[in-house]
């Protein structure tokens, strides 16, 4: 109860109530995330069940078009799968990969950032150089190379089976430098403060100082970064799947749906590719808008440098 | 300064070394060169003998040194698909990608500078507000989706622009250019707009943020106090100092651009390096894959090093902070 009360008096809640865009994007996100979580209950069809797919139903336009039927609200794709259901399940995979990748990169980056920043010295220099170099290659580039090489090594069919954990690993490993840099910067600022000095005098071990004293004070930049990184991870996954380096077409994510529908726009079947695309944009945009809001609240100067 | 240059060059060499090790590892683990050359109707003994003459039974470090020695001479093996040296294939495909990057950089420069400066000078103008909210929408739309939507509207629905290929090309001494014919320009228009679509909002925001920060600084206040005209303060004093960080970020964005050329070229079937790379992935053409990886890696290391050196030259604090770490 008391934590709720402090939250209601906080600056975060105060600014949130006054920001219409933030409220709208949070609402959209809640709707999207809960439909992803409850996909089996919400989706009218199960796109993974071959029994429910009839090739005769392929390429039916959305209900409001001339040849559309209300049986398939958003039409069907080239294999006769209901677009709405496929999109909900696709978004579910995109979100799982996005969140998983961000958890992994946060874990790696925060740990490296905390310890490298606190201890400094040679290890710190090596990690930060590595982060610089990796950033200069751009995370998407690194991710594309990693998955291209791995796909060539394990072969396309086996690759499809391990695609979800693999994409989480690839996107997680290609983006840890963002976290490491942000966390290290705030550790460097915190390290000189008196409470750390006091903890050291009291005889705390350095890992205890890092984890229980400094870490909590780096949480707000981590939170801000995490929202943006989820958007980035979802975008990266979509790009990889679009290139055919990600989710296979029988378990599509939003990216592979866009990829599989692409050739059909030439025959006028725009909905197969444009609808999942629009869903992807709405998802990424509302995460980005929320991230913008959080950044303004927590630290207006955080990303200026 | 000399110490800074030496340190930076050593770092670049280390990165190139790591890239070569990765390239070598990929080459070793993808595909079997003996199988590619002989087919299946060869006995195990003959295979073993063949492996021996090719040096595939040597320890890996001997093979690595051989790989590196050949790579320095520009020999990265023959492409399985094209049956030609991989470096030759890459040099043949490079002009298409370079022209695409060139035209989209032109688009970015021509639009981002005036728009960014304008929204910094007049932050409350309604156009600036539209630009700022528009740019976050722009960042949220993936490049390949922009490309697909453009194809749907301008090629499928309106039939104004071609949806794939480079169109009519003119050969100038080994460089096949599409920039000299009207047809070539019609083909390059959509891909280059798609490629610039995600960078443009980033650069508008960056230029705006930098310009606003510069406008707050002391020497600008002094320039106002001296009674200089608006124009002089904005475009001569403030703008000059805005450009420096923009150039560095521009250099770093090269990697992002290359990643996005892969996406753009795939959508438009643009016969450049990115399209070639994706084809090589599908065909498990490992020599070509490795060659592309090494080529792009080295180009990026060289560009980043040069950008860093330029930055160190104009901004001495970088050199000093680099020395202490």
Question: Could you explain the architecture of this structure?
Answer:
- The complex is a heterodimer of chains A (305) and B (325).
- Chain A is mainly α.
- Chain A has a domain at 96-300: MetI-like (MetI-like fold, Orthogonal Bundle), CATH 1.10.3720.10.
- Chain A is built from 14 helices and no strands.
- The radius of gyration of chain A is 23 Å and the shape is globular.
- Chain B is globular, with a radius of gyration of 25 Å.
- Classes of the chains: A mainly alpha (305), B mainly alpha (325).
- At the A-B interface, helix 6, helix 7, helix 12 and helix 14 of A face helix 1, helix 6, helix 7, helix 11 and helix 12 of B.
Roughly what is the average pLDDT of chain B, rounded to an integer?
A: 80
Shape of chain B: globular
**Order of helix and strand elements from N to C terminus of chain A:** HHHHHHHHHHHHHH
Helix content of chain B: over 70%
Poorly predicted ranges of chain A (pLDDT <50, ≥5 residues)?
A: none
- What are the segments of chain B in which pLDDT stays under 50 over at least 5 consecutive residues? none
Shape of chain A: globular
Our Rg estimate of chain B from Cα atoms comes to 25 Å
Strand segment count of chain B: 2
- Category from helices, strands and their pairing of chain B: mainly alpha
Average predicted confidence as pLDDT of chain A: 81
């Amino acid at each position: 109860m008391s934590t709720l009360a402090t939250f209601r008096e906080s600056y975060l809640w105060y600014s949130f109530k006054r920001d219409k865009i933030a409220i709208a994007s949070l609402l959209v996100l809640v709707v999207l995330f809960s439909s992803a979580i409850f996909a089996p209950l919400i989706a009218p069809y199960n796109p993974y069940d071959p029994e429910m797919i009839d090739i005769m139903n392929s390429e039916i336009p959305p209900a409001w078009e001339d040849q559309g039927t209300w049986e398939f609200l958003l039409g069907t794709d080239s294999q006769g799968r209901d677009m709405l259901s496929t999109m909900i399940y696709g978004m579910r995979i995109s979100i799982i990969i996005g969140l998983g990748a961000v958890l992994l990169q946060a874990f790696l980056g925060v740990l490296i950032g905390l310890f490298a920043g606190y201890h400094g010295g040679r290890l710190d220099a090596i990690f930060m150089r590595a982060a610089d170099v990796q950033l200069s290659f751009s995370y998407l580039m690194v991710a594309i190379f990693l998955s291209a090489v791995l796909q060539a090594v394990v072969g396309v069919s086996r690759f499809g089976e391990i695609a979800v954990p693999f994409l989480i690993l690839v996107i997680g490993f290609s983006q840890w430098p963002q976290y490491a840099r942000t966390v290290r910067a705030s550790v460097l600022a915190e390290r000189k403060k008196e409470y750390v000095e006091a903890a050291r005098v009291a005889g705390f071990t350095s890992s205890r100082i890092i984890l229980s004293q400094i870490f909590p004070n780096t949480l707000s930049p981590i939170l801000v970064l995490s929202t943006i990184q989820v958007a980035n991870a979802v975008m990266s996954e979509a790009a990889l799947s679009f290139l055919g380096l990600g989710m296979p077409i029988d378990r599509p994510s939003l990216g592979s749906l866009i990829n599989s529908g692409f050739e059909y726009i030439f025959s006028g079947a725009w909905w197969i590719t444009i609808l999942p695309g629009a869903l992807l944009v709405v998802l990424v945009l509302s995460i980005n808008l929320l991230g913008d809001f959080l950044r303004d609240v927590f630290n207006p100067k955080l990303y200026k440098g | 300064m000399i110490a800074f240059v030496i340190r930076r060059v050593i770092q670049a060499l280390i990165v190139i070394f790591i890239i070569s090790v990765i390239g070598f590892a990929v080459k070793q683990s993808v595909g079997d060169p003996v199988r590619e050359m002989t087919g299946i109707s060869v006995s195990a003994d003959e295979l073993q003998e063949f492996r021996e003459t090719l040096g595939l039974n040597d320890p890996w470090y001997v093979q690595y040194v051989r790989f590196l020695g050949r790579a320095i001479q520009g020999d990265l093996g023959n492409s399985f698909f094209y049956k030609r040296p991989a470096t030759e294939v890459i040099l043949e495909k490079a002009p298409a990608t370079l022209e695409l990057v060139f035209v989209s950089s032109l688009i970015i420069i021509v639009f981002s500078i005036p728009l960014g400066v304008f929204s910094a000078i007049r932050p409350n103008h309604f156009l600036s507000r539209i630009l700022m909210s528009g740019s976050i929408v722009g960042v949220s739309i993936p490049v390949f989706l922009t490309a697909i939507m453009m194809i749907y509207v301008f090629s499928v629905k309106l039939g104004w622009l071609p949806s794939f290929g480079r169109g009519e090309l003119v050969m100038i001494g080994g460089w096949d250019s599409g920039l000299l014919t009207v047809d070539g320009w019609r083909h390059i228009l959509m891909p280059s707009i798609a490629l610039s679509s995600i960078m443009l909002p980033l650069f508008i925001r960056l230029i705006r943020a930098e310009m606003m920060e510069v406008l707050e600084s002391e020497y600008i206040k002094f320039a106002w106090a001296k009674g200089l005209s608006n124009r002089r303060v904005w475009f001569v004093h403030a703008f000059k100092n805005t450009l420096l960080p923009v150039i560095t970020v521009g250099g770093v964005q090269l990697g992002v651009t290359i990643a996005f050329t892969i996406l753009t070229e795939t959508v438009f079937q643009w016969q450049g390096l990115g399209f070639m790379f994706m084809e090589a992935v599908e065909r498990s053409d490992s020599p070509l894959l490795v060659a592309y990886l090494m080529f792009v890696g080295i180009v990026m290391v060289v560009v980043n090093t040069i950008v860093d050196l330029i930055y160190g030259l104009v901004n001495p604090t970088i050199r000093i902070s680099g020395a202490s770490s």
